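quick one, three chains, predict together pls
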Amino acid sequence: MSEDYNDNKTIQAQSSETISGSGSGVSPDIDYVRPAEIPEQDLYHGHSFITKWVFCQDAKVIGVQYFLLATFTGIIGLILSWLMRLQLGFPELASFMTAEHYYQFVTMHGMIMVVYFLTALFLGGFGNFLIPLMVGARDMVFPYLNMVSFWMFFIAVGVLLASFFVPGGPTGSGWTLYPPQAILEGTPGSGMGIMLMCISLILFVAGFTMGGLNYLITVLQARTRGMTLMRMPLTVWGIFTATVLAMLAFPALLVGALMMSLDNILGTSFFMPTILKAGEVLEYGGGSPILFQHLFWFFGHPEVYIVALPAFGIISDLISVHARKNIFGYRMMVWAIVGIGALSFFVWAHHMYVSGMNPWFGFFFATTTLIIAVPTAMKVYNWILTLWRGNIRLNTVMLWCLGFIVTFVNGGITGIFLGNVTVDVPLSDTYFVIAHFHMVMGIAPLMVIMGAVYHWFPLVAGRFLDEKLGKWHFWLTFLGAYSIYFPMHYLGFIGVPRRYFEMYDSPYMTSAVGMNEFISMAAFIVGAAQFILIYNIIRALKIGKPSGHNPWKACSLEWLTPSVPPEHGNWGERLPVVHRWAYDYSVPGAKEDFITQTTPPSDVANTEVEKT
Amino acid sequence: MSDPKIEGYEFKPGFKGMAQDTGSDQTMFKGVHWGKAMMWIFLLSDTFIFSCFLISYMKGRGSTLIDWPNPSEVFGLHVFGVDVPLLLIAIMTFVLITSSGTMALAVKYGYEKNKKMCGWLILATAIGGLTFVGMQAFEWSKLIHEGVRPWENPFGAPQFGSFFFMITGFHGTHVSIGVIFLFIYAYKTFKGHYDEGKRGWFTSIKGDYVEIEILGLYWHFVDLVWVFIFAFFYLW
Amino acid sequence: MHAGIIFFLVILGSVLFHIFTPWYWTDVASNWGGMDDTITLTFWVGGGVFVAVCLFMVYCVFKFSYKEDRKAEYKPEDKKLERILTWTTTLGVAALLAPGLIIWNQFISVPKNAIEIDVMAWQWGWQYRLPGEDGKLGTTQVTNINDNNPFGINLDDPYGKDDVMVQTDVINLENNRPVKILLRSVDVLHNWYVPQFRAKMDAVPGIVTYYWFEPNKTGEYEVLCAEYCGVGHYAMRGGVVVQDNQDYENWLQEQETFSDLMAKQKLLETGETKLAKK
């Protein structure tokens, strides 16, 4: 087995010599970087198909595995959303659907998209692929644990999808899984369905914890020489902070899911008060349904930022690269990410203004919620100020970035409506809420994912995705999604409540019929447009234009690997040595419009580099 | 503990040193083994799990309609014709805290490469843990015998049984996992895996005595959690 | 270039949609017009920011799109600009928050003269109980609920005897008189919501929640359940009729009280025993 390791290889990067410069003079060498303080990582190199591609310990492969599985569950979520829209827009065509089905689809769509698609894709997918490359590590620090993390996720997805095939079907209690109705008759899937959902969530949390420990320790303890925290690309900052949130927020979900399982299976009464059903008093009593809501949202709100922060980070990098300009106010951006992350633990009850909790909490949570708007707004300003006086390449990646800014600002501002406690009262539990969170944590992160796919695909596969198909994909998705969710806010103003299987004939709801048909049509088109990407990827893998090294002329480390796509171990013989931040674009006096992170200062001595 | 030696890096004391470490390249916690840093962060996450449990317990206990049973009666033991409140728990707590002591000594002897002492001390810790789990099993069976169930409780609020079995059960699972690992580590220590750097069965990471310290962190944490559970269930 | 134009049209379309939309809130029929005002205020401020940010973005797309011979500006930070933006945003946010908190304070302080109404929810329907002449509702318990005691009133509570019981899903309210809605549920979460009154609150089993409003427009309104409560959620409707003083009093007179109901039950039972004896 020992031949699988690079035990006996001599690794040059360990020696204390610097890359260039003599270091012998009296004046300190400007290229000096401290010698390595962490020993070379010994990696397990797989030989067989199984160890190379299935139970693989290479973070890049694990990232792709996460990406593919999350996309697969995402497509299931997409199909469920089609079925829901079919019912809402054209109920006469959806006669095969009962209310039970509808609520099951609502629930599974929500849970899949938030947890099994977005969270897994951003942290598991992009996190695994990008973190080691961007901080200059050979791999994640615990490759074995990382591999187990993916397979736990795999089992979690399996259990989740298995609930479609058990008696009673999957749970239909809404993605918030509020007790008591989640485990009582009258809600679809109240027996096996909710049990499998809880088990699946617990497995997901366990698996995610393994991955999350990897991401955190890799960022904290395995950066390459010269890579300080304040030189890391914002992508890493976003994923890192989101992982910290996840490590502290998922425990609440785990505890909530466990307690609900016990209520369901053993008949404990954690969340169950005295209940009268069909004229009979059930054997529950003394529990508190609101306790579950607190546990759920203590997880649920940070969860929003677990999805949003990586998106913030990635979009900052994409905008900077394709506007050929440094990200404006890097330090502000970092502190905003960290600040938003910290604040996100103090805002959870803004989901519960009308839940019946003590109304005095409203003052506190409205204030904290609106405070969080300030760092978020700063990030938006900095994105558009990065475009200002840039040199903007209007390629597909940039289009996704622009689409993100529009949808994110739109969704962020409707968030101010819902966070401000009084304004929330008429709007909560209506379509306004649906429109808000789809815009801000559905479409906006999706824009980032797509942008990131077009941006990093050349690194993963060594080939470009097709620009023309990409533009079609973008415009159909962006215009379609915007015309789904922008008008939907107005349904909320009318007062149409969410989670209604049928609208019936309330006077103010009949006016919504036309809009519902329109929204459904748009939803079908947007969903179908996503298959353009799948076609584009398959096509590019076969006949895509080879991209070569650093096709976007980016500064950050992931593009500077000796081979494209990077091999296991990432960096060949020598680890890179970092001399500057990841955003030295268009530096006055430099030969090209970018200076890579590994360029030593002596090479660019005649330029006006301000920040290193 | 003294700072590790790092070429080209000068440690500074206090807050300044912390800021400098944070702002430096490569690592934030200088000289800290990856596995150790990982265990600390895992324990932070685990702290949140137990906090959620205990906060839910406080909320649940505060909002039940039926009175909470008196802990000194429920947990009391009747020995030699006298009712002694909290006797069993006192012994359990003592055993667990003692096992923390033996664990700390095991870590010390591990770093001194004293294979034999280290192995025996790990084994002693494991036996302490096993005793604790055994006594917990005894306490559970006593309560179950008296009619306490997760869903009902002859002494008062049914939530007493629910929270008690859930939280001590979750903690007991932690202890049991710890015991299993302690036995494995004792075996590995006696076999000398940490001296020769033999690769692990699954993870294929090279063996090192630091692993004993990492397990020690976990074990101390489990003890600390028990102190809180003890205070919240038995003394409140 | 085309991209910039399309983005501009999207922004323009959003503004036009907002101006000409046929879908907008129904006329407010309670004292919570202030909630509409806060929404309008948030709309102006938020909408302004949205349009400004997006137009700036579109401008950048036009002005700074890629040219081979141009180099972007190199400016990592601008402390002054960042400070100005931070403080302006903070002020704007505070300006939105303050009125919100003021109205929230009104929302949670119930006026003394408010009439209390017990709204009881179950899967899937509503029923209502009004205090009788003593002006107080009797205490209740879920376990007391049966055919003879549909609200689960504690029989030994003297306040409960004269409570007025409305065992349909439609309740009448007096115009211009504040009501305190006391919500309870016997099974799962529900939410008693009339869009025209703006206010809403969950009914949670095990506890009693409340909110208040003052209807100020006579007419009939539909009650919707706004918290997901199982497969029948979408069909869980009710009604409110807001009437002037006289009509309301007439309606109130026709309603049955708890003691009426008990008397009737007793009569029925004695009748039954008599029948059985024969």
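Chain C has two domains: 2-63+78-108, 115-271.
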